[in-house]
Hints:
Strands 1, 2, 3, 4, 5, 6, 7, 8, 9 and 10 form a 10-stranded mixed beta sheet that branches. A 4-stranded antiparallel beta sheet has the order 11-12-17-16, with helices on one face. A 3-stranded antiparallel beta sheet has the order 13-14-15. Helix content is 39%, strand content 20%. The protein is α+β, with helices and mostly antiparallel strands. It has helices at residues 3-16, 46-49, 97-111, 136-147, 161-167, 179-182, 272-279, 289-302, 308-329, 338-357, 368-374, 381-384, 386-414, 421-431, 435-445, 451-460, 464-467, 469-472, 482-502, 530-545, 557-562, and strands spanning 20-21, 59-67, 83-92, 119-124, 155-159, 174-177, 183-185, 198-208, 231-245, 257-271, 510-513, 518-523, 550-556, 576-582, 591-594, 609-618, 621-628. The protein has 3 domains: 3-285, BirA Bifunctional Protein, domain 2, CATH 3.30.930.10; 288-472; 482-628, Threonyl-trna Synthetase, Chain A, domain 2 (Threonyl-tRNA Synthetase, Chain A, domain 2, 2-Layer Sandwich), CATH 3.30.980.
Amino acid sequence: MTSKEVREKYLEFFRKKEHAIISSASLVPENDPTTLFTSSGMQPLVPYLLGEKHSMGVRLTNSQKSFRAEDIDDIGDNRHTTFFEMLGNWSLGDYFKKEQLPWVFEFLTDEIGIDPQRLYVTVFAGDKEAGVDKDNESVKIWKELFKGKGIEAKDIELITEEKGGELGTQGGRIFYYGAKKNWWSRSGVPMNMPVGEPGGPDSEIFYEFTHIEHDPKFGKYCHPNCDCGRFMEIGNSVFMEFQKQEDPPGNGRTGGTFKKLPQRNVDFGGGLERITAASNDNPDIFEIDLFYDLIQAIKIISCKNYEGEDKLSMRIVADHIRSSVLMISDGVIPSNSERGYVLRRLLRRAIRHGDKLGMKEGSLATFASLVAEKYKGVYDSINTNLVAIASEMQKEEAKFRETLSAGMKMFEKISKEDISGKDAFILFSSHGFPLEITVELAKEKGIKVDKKGFDEEFKKHQDLSRSGSEKKFKGGLGGLSEIETKYHTATHLLNAALRKVLGEHVYQKGSNITVERLRFDFPNSAKLTDEEKKKIEVLVNEKIKEALPVSMEEMPLPKAKEEGATGVFGEKYPDIVTVYTIGDDKNNYFSKEICGGPHVKNTSELGHFKIKKEEAIASGVRRIKAFLE
Length: 629
């Protein structure tokens, strides 16, 4: 079965269950300064899980583009990818366990055709300290579902990773695990959650590849959460119904308590690539259709076979190329900070492993079309921007190769013994070697790199926004302060002013807001003149002084486009969008943009706008940093 078939079957299955199909959000989160990338299907929906009303109703489904930077070091095994699609369905205070678990089981076994004998599930074992009971309800439902397929599902009490390795499955089908495995929140286990944070127990589904022999280095016996590769997690139903509260005075507790949320939610996430692999009983994700053409092209260009150490390098090249194409199509550009740095890490690591395979220089960009072909009719921004995507990849490879030779010479010089953090940082700052490449090269020589020392050097040389980027990798949705809300509105004024001064070719290619400034990326072939910058500043400040109202309206996407609303480069919008208009008259506005908000109610709240810096960040792409006084 192909990934396209799995995706289409999933969406149609839940459409028939009265779910509205919503579009995937961009990999670049909107109005979320706490995280660099959209890393799960639920991330764009957190406000609705907490009680806000969604315009499409209380039952939603989609396939969400996702990227997890923390998985970069895991790439090379048979099941991890940095980019992935998360098949999701949500109940916003509507149905719960007795509907969700049977539906997912039905989809996997009846629609996809997975043998139920190969499926194992885990449930929450409870947390006495948090006062949350173990999930006996889900166990009862699972037992009935397996019984309906002629399978007696034995449940096994509390399992930890350590005990799992000691005891194995013990003939069980349903396993109780603790909060580290079967509790979901944005901040970990129950007692670590901050006050106000939502969370709840979950139930994970695993597929067993029976032809994979257990590797004893992961424990004496295999179990669902074992990392040997025999079991692969393919889906997780989160039952989000709790919220962390402060402890009442005098109760003798310090870890907080939990209360029920006003609405009980279901948040399911299933890995498209993993479900496709399971449907074909093939544990290697890199052999499904989404990677097949890439791997074949890499084999041809490198004249190597997909085996041994070469297999690891081929997986890394294929994964990093696919992720890079998806990131660039959503407006990310290689740079030395934040999202751009993650993209740079991917491309340069792909170049490094391409070189190990003996691939031709400049070959990475040629793979972009192979990725685009797989997403026709799904993420059309890839094909629309294919020339620009390939160009960015080509430029980044050329830039890296300018310093690669000198960097390798330095590495050979300093790698007679363990590499200091300072030397690793020089390789990064002077030769463009991401730390991961230095660590990989060192590992091949049997030496170590002082990562802590590298981090210390890195922090010394970064500005405030970059030194905060490490926190952003942890994910989660945070609120916007009043000043950030003002900067968000000012960004709309700046976008409109740029289009009026420079021309209609200007659009938002990237944006970042902190409490200190706004940053806006846009396409333009030339540096702005002092006269152009002055005109832009004057125009923005005129609109602030005019005290223009800021209004919001939800409408169908075609209507928004018909009314002239602009959007974000690479964004694929839902059928119903939110449009913010700055101006007195609906037909005589200054700015009209598709955006999720929030914004001030009137431009008079903004103060005085001043451009601080204008610079090039890539060929044909400019960046403005500005602040409000």
